[in-house]
Write a structure and sequence with these properties.
Mean pLDDT: 85
Low-confidence stretches: none
Shape: globular
Number of strands: 8
Number of helices: 5
Order of helices and strands: EEHEEHEEHEEHH
Oligomer: single chain
Structural class: alpha/beta
Distance between the termini: 45 Å
Length: about 170
């Protein structure tokens, strides 16, 4: 039986939406050939999904995961290097880094979780990681900085020294 909603869920092309139970929204990043990198359109789509989650009274929690061997390898660098830039909505990278939502979001991390993907996971309310999950902030290796809110949260979570190691060595 399909859940009934006050408003229909957003139409998606970047992510797949499912409902394991009538109260749980499962969002699967679905660009495995690109390690689930997020483009500008993907940011807007995720923002719409999380906004819909918060407005939908029958849903209690959201879960985000990735298809294939990566949770998310961050921004779509092909788009970024073309000059288009992967602009994020007001809610930030993947709709999570500056999200003001009221419902919890769980990051179910499988495989690679790098750059903006790592920032999305850190900005989630809870992380459940597989034993093969790899977390990294490789921005420093390409001359940019992690600016989606992960650094202060990372310091609070793993301590200053481990956060510095991740941020300065990639």
């Amino acid at each position: 039986m399909s859940p009934t909603f006050a408003r229909p869920p957003p139409i998606t092309s970047f992510a797949r939406i499912a409902f394991p139970t009538s109260q749980i929204l499962l969002v699967t990043l679905n660009r495995p050939q690109s390690l689930n990198c997020i483009s500008s359109a993907g940011h807007q789509e995720l923002h719409s999904i999380w906004s819909w989650l918060d407005a939908e009274p029958s849903l209690r929690v959201g879960i985000i995961t990735g298809e294939g061997r990566a949770f998310c390898a961050g921004a779509d660098l092909k788009e970024w290097s073309s000059g288009a830039g992967a602009s994020a909505p007001s809610s930030g990278f993947g709709g999570l880094s500056r999200r003001k939502g009221k419902k919890p979001i769980i990051a179910a991390v499988n495989g690679l979780c790098m750059g903006g993907g790592c920032e999305m996971a850190i900005n989630a309310d809870l992380i459940v990681a597989s034993s093969g999950a790899v977390f990294a902030l490789p921005e420093v290796k390409v001359g940019v900085i992690a600016l989606a809110g992960a650094l202060p949260r990372l310091v609070r979570t793993v301590g200053k020294q481990r956060a510095m190691e991740m941020a300065l060595t990639g």
